[in-house]
Amino acid sequence: MAAPENIYSLLWSEEGERLMVYDDATREPIKPGTHVIGHPTIGAGIRLDVPILQKESDTMLANRVQALVARMMLRAWFRALDPTRRWAIISMAYTIGVEGVEAFTGMIAGLQAADWAAASAAILDSVWAKEQAPARAGRVAAMILSGQWPPGGNDGPS
User: Contact, 22 vs 28, CB < 8 A?
Assistant: First the structure.
């Protein structure tokens, strides 16, 4: 059964729309440590304490990756990279944000000079690699160093 176009307007007017996770009982944003009274909710009343559809997860991931790529493409040093190294930086930005990537000035200097060893070493010599996400940082550093996808990481995006 196809939904009539006006059902979306009806639901948006009844539910409202919040582009953040919020408590539907209090309408307040949920932050770390928040005591939730109702249900964690996002968007137009979409509860997050029930499973989401695979297609929803795929769409959210694709949208976030596209947004990161668009932001990173504004940087000449990023545009100059080969596709594998670009995707390594996107993986990094997905977890620590574009601003987080930009804080890796030693890595960026290495990338600009095509000094893959220096760029990789800068990643590995970071709090991110040592304390926060060592396995992921290791994979990103290996991709930067080799220009190859990690084993089991397939051949990149299709």
Answer: yes
Split into its structural domains, the chain has a count of 2
Secondary structure class of 18 (helix, strand, coil): strand
Contacts of 123 (CB under 8 A, 6+ apart): 92, 104, 107, 129, 137, 140, 141, 144
pTM: 0.82
N- to C-terminal Cα separation, the chain: 32
- Please give the C-alpha separations between residue 17 and each of 20, 35, 67, 70, 102, in angstroms, as whole numbers: 9, 21, 21, 25, 32
Output the CA torsion 71→98→42→29 (10° steps).
-130
Which segments of 4-146 does DSSP mark as H helices, in order?
6-15, 54-72, 76-79, 83-102, 105-112, 116-124, 127, 134-146
What domain range includes position 11?
Answer: 1-27+38-50
- pLDDT tens digits, one per residue of 17-32: 889 999 999 999 999 9
Same domain? For 62 and 95 the reply is yes
Q: Provide the β-strand partners of residue 23.
A: 40
